[in-house]
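Service request form, structural biology core

Requester: graduate student, group of Dr. S.
Request type: structure prediction, single chain
Budget code: on file
Notes: please return the result as C-alpha cells.

Sequence provided:
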Amino acid sequence: MGRIRIILIVLLVGALFNISVAWGIQIWGVQSLPPMFNPIKSPKHLYDNSKLMPLSPYEIAAWSRVARHDWPDKPARIEVQNSAGSCITHMVSYGYDRRIPESDIGSYTVISIETFNAHIIERGWPFQSLAMDYRTETGPLPFYEDCSGLSVADRYLPIRVLWSGFIINTLLYSTVLLILVKTPGVMKRQLRQKRGLCITCKYDLSGAKHEACPECGHSIRLNRLIK
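Core staff response, request fulfilled:
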C-alpha cells in the first residue's frame, strides 16, 4: 500500500504540474487583442477550402463542435499555427450578403457580410494537453463573443482535457519527479555500500560475518547486492 500511495501522489503532482505548464503557456503566450487569444502571425497552413482542397473529417468535426447552431455548416478558411507548447487553429466562415434598405439620403444599397470566427487554442508541453474554444461573430448583428475557458482576472485558461497529450505529459513529469526524488537516496546507499557501512543505519560492517546488521537488522546479503 505504501508504494501504491507514493505512485498515486507522484501522478497527482505530475498532473498538477502538467496543468501549470499549459496555463503558464497560455498566460505568457497572450500578446495582443482579442483578449485571451494569441493571434496567428505566420500560419504554416492556410487555404480556402472552396478552391484548393476539401476539408478533412477532423476539421469538419472541429468546426461542428465549436460553431454555433446558426452558423454555416463548414468554414471557408482555416489557419493553423504550431509552435512549442501551442497549437492554434483559426477557422472563419462568412454569412450570406444582406441588403440593407436604401437610406433616405441616397439611392444606394449597403452590402454587409457576417463573419464567424472560431479559434481552437491548445496548450501544453511537450504535447498539447489542455484546450479551449473562442468564438466571435461580427456583422450587421451585435458583436458576439464566447469562450469555453476558465475566466481568471482578464484572461481565459484552457480546461478541456486532451486525453492523449495529458496522459503522456503527466507520465513524463511523474517519471522525472520520481527520478529526482529517488536519486539522492540511491546515491547515498551506494556511497555507504562502498564504504562498507550498512545502507540503512550506517553501522560499520567491516569484517562482519553476520547475515544481518547487528545494529538495525538489515540483511547484509541484500546490502551487498545493492549497487
